[in-house]
Automatic annotation (TrEMBL):
<dbReference type="InterPro" id="IPR041698">
    <property type="entry name" value="Methyltransf_25"/>
</dbReference>
<dbReference type="InterPro" id="IPR029063">
    <property type="entry name" value="SAM-dependent_MTases_sf"/>
</dbReference>
<dbReference type="GO" id="GO:0008168">
    <property type="term" value="F:methyltransferase activity"/>
</dbReference>
<feature type="domain" description="Methyltransferase">
    <location>
        <begin position="41"/>
        <end position="139"/>
    </location>
</feature>
<protein>
    <recommendedName>
        <fullName>Methyltransferase domain-containing protein</fullName>
    </recommendedName>
</protein>
<dbReference type="Pfam" id="PF13649">
    <property type="entry name" value="Methyltransf_25"/>
</dbReference>
């Protein structure tokens, strides 16, 4: 399988920094209220490790399994873990994806931020089933849902701009419908020096769309209950065993 992040990993960590400013405290709040008191935390699609850092701060004693399929992104993730004494002894970085990663039973939480759109419906059902089997009592699966919720065109927009030294980094995004339940995103990364381009790249990847209601129905089929958490604009969702009291804000 080709790695959609092979050419864009150079830019992704700095491009998502601003988005993590509201997301980090919201994730911290969810994890601080998880009723399961033991077990590892699995970070699916851990990317460059920004979420790993939040998890370790929110649950200081929990071991973390950081699962990332992209070798390019794992390089950034490993560097972040290695340079921090607090993370190095607790975080295990594993190659793999939602279906192939080896999780233990009785996990305290599964975090899958910016991941659900990468999963076609069949793989989403695998994720719900694994969560139903392997979450500890009182454990949660946390993920977010982002627009679009249907296969519609998304006009090109600048999603991030970062200045480092003499260089300006820009990230632009657009999407077009490519199926009854999917879009294809095009991400353009530009590097400018004094207004002149000196580097950059463009990548495309498939993204499966669904509403929160559709995802809730899928999760319910596996015996799970979905609720919302945090600011509605973040699209943060918490899934837990249906027979347990809710951890989310709903």
């Amino acid at each position: 399988m080709s790695d959609p992040y092979e050419r864009s990993a150079e830019y992704l960590d700095i491009m998502i920094a601003e988005a993590w400013e509201p997301l980090a405290p919201a994730l911290t709040d969810v994890l601080s209220r998880v009723r399961a008191e033991t077990g590892a935390v699995v970070d699916l699609g851990a990317g460059s490790g920004r979420g790993v850092r939040v998890i370790c701060d929110a649950l200081p004693q929990a071991p973390v399994l950081a699962v990332e399929p992209s070798a390019a992104m794992r390089a950034v993730l490993l560097a972040r873990v290695h340079e921090d004494d607090r993370l190095r002894g607790r975080v295990t970085v594993l190659p793999g994806d939602c279906a192939s990663a080896d999780w233990p039973d009785g996990v305290r939480a599964v975090v899958a931020l910016n991941v659900i759109g990468h999963l076609p419906p069949g793989e989403r059902r695998v994720l719900w089933s694994r969560a139903a089997r392997q979450l500890a009592p009182g454990g949660v699966l946390v993920f977010n849902v982002t627009r679009p919720y249907a296969p519609v065109e998304v006009e090109r927009v600048r999603m991030a701009r970062v200045v480092i030294g003499e260089l300006e980094y820009e990230g632009w995004a657009s999407a077009r419908p490519t199926g009854p339940d999917e879009v294809t995103w095009r991400m353009d990364y530009r590097v400018l020096r004094r207004g002149e381009p000196v580097g950059g790249t463009s990548v495309q990847y498939r993204w499966w769309v669904a509403t929160v209601e559709e995802l809730a129905a899928e999760a319910a089929g596996a015996g799970l209950r979905l609720g919302a958490a945090g600011d509605p604009g973040l699209g943060l969702c918490v899934v837990e065993h249906a027979k347990e009291a809710p951890t989310s804000n709903s």
